[in-house]
Predict the 3D structure of the following.
Amino acid sequence: MSRLVRFATALGLMLPAIGMAQIGPPPSPTATRPVVVAPPAPLPTPVRPARVDSLSGQMAPVKSNSQVQQQLRSHPIEARGTGPTQPIQGPTLQPKVYDRHGRIIPGAKQVGPNRVLDTRTGKYYDAIPSGDGQQIRP
C-alpha cells in the first residue's frame, strides 16, 4: 500500500473523532432564561358532612361509639336475599347494509323489517336479507 492511501485512510478514520470533539455537550435549556418554579397548590381542607336524621330530616345528635354499638346490636340487618340475576348484554350491533352491487354502505341503518335508511342521502330503500345484513333491492 502506498503512503498516500494509508494517509487518506487514517485521515478518514480521524475526521469523525475530530468532528465529535468540536460538538461538545449540549447547553442547559435554562442557561439563557430564568426558571420560575410554581408554588405547590394548597391542599383542600376536608369537609365533614353534617349528620341528618333520616326519618325527620333534622340534625341528629352526635352519638358516642357505645351508643352506636348498642343500636347495632338491637337492630339486626335483615337480609332480603339475592335479587334476580340479569344477563349481561353487550352493545347491539346494527346489521350491515349492502348496496345493489354488494358493497357496504357506511352510515346506513336498518329502520324496520326490509327497510333501510341511507343517512348520507336521507333516502329510504327496500331491502332483502343477505348474509349478515340487508341488501338494497335491485
